[in-house]
Design a protein that fits this description.
The protein is of the alpha/beta class. The chain folds into 3 domains: about 140 residues, Rossmann fold (3-Layer(aba) Sandwich), CATH 3.40.50; about 140 residues, Rossmann fold; about 55 residues, no CATH class. About 35% of the residues lie in helices and about 20% in strands. It has 11 helices and 13 strands. The longest helix is centred in the last third of the chain and has 27 residues.
Length: about 350
């Protein structure tokens, strides 16, 4: 699974700004996800921004006080070089529709059409693709609306709703109240294949009632069949329970709330796990090509700002340890030969 976060999108935009014309007057985002890309371009380059529907209606977003400059206060009719951008391009339908709407509106200008992520480096409907991301792929802003969700295992607490507080997590009346009134977090718009949770089986009815009240559709609800929270803690069954089911299932991805559990599930199941806490996919082999590619993408930008070799080494170690986990970091150390 090729996954990109909002941070990845921003990095791709910053890396590719030099490919855009210097004289862009306005950035137009193709709804909905393209508005995110347009906003990031606008904020980085300090260029006026709007969404496609507003652009067609002759409206441009106002700018904040701290961003004021003369170029930001121009009227719609003064905009000549216009960047139309979407988050991604696959079949090209959204960009084709945007082109048709602009043409039908009779708006004149020098248009540049771009996508942050594309299946190929060149697409018929775009002039520029910033980064190639092939299928299968998911993005931070769409994975809860993705067709692949029916092939995923999804955690509940920390994903679909907020985690309970210590006070709420008493395995008693306070916890039952939490289950009935849990605050929604990420709202899926497609059916989920398997909900796999460390909640105890005795709380199935309360869990099912909450899911129904929030119109969350799913095929299977897998819960931990233990008598109490204390027994679950004694056995340390959270990650191993999820990993065991995931390993035996046909699911292609597990969406987990906590980083450490994500690492454990990936290790025990031998399959990838997306962590919503870090927006990073954990792979079973921390030294596999996908894992190393992701680690390289997520190295903090401050690495480029540390001047001393010792400083770079220290920051790099911390970043790699955070991304790969302690086990992955030690494996990497053992495989890297020190120079003689």
């Amino acid at each position: 699974m090729n996954y990109r976060s909002i941070s990845d999108m921003n990095d791709a935009i910053v890396r590719n700004l030099h490919r855009l014309p210097r004289d862009i007057d306005l950035v137009v985002g193709v709804p909905r996800s393209g508005v995110l890309a347009a906003t990031l371009v606008s904020l980085t380059a300090n260029i006026p921004v709007t969404d496609l529907d507003s652009f067609l209606a002759g409206r441009i977003y106002t700018s904040g006080i701290t961003k004021r400059r003369a170029a930001l206060d121009r009227q719609h009719s003064e905009m000549r070089k216009i960047l139309v951008i979407d988050d991604s391009v696959s079949g090209g339908n959204a960009m084709r529709d945007a082109r048709n709407k602009i043409e039908a509106a009779g708006i004149k200008g020098d248009f540049v059409f771009a996508a942050v992520f594309g299946l190929l480096s060149e697409h018929k409907e775009t002039d520029i693709v910033f980064e190639v991301v092939p299928h299968p792929r998911m993005f931070q802003w769409n994975f809860m609306h993705h067709i692949f969700l029916e092939q995923c295992c999804v955690d509940i607490d920390g994903v679909l709703c907020l985690d309970p507080t210590e006070e709420e997590n008493d395995d008693g009346p306070a916890y039952e109240k939490f289950l009935a009134e849990a605050r929604p977090l990420l709202g899926p718009t497609r059916k989920i294949g398997w909900l796999v949770t460390s909640r105890l089986e005795k709380y199935r009815k309360l869990t099912e009632a909450w899911l129904a009240s929030h119109e969350i559709k799913y095929d299977h609800l897998i819960m931990l069949d233990l008598p109490s929270k204390a027994e679950r803690q004694r056995l340390g069954a959270h990650g191993s329970f999820k990993a065991d089911f995931y390993r035996k299932s046909d699911a292609i991805l597990f969406i987990e709330s906590e980083h450490e559990q994500a690492l454990k599930i990936a290790k025990l199941s031998g399959k990838p796990v997306l962590c919503v806490e870090t927006n990073i996919v954990s792979f079973p082999d921390a030294l596999s090509l996908p894992a190393l590619q992701q680690a390289a993408r997520n190295l903090p930008a401050r690495l480029r700002q540390v001047n001393s070799p010792d400083g770079r080494k220290k920051v790099a170690k911390a970043a790699v340890r955070a991304l790969l986990g302690s086990r992955g970091y030690e494996m990497l150390k053992s495989r890297v030969k020190r120079p003689a």
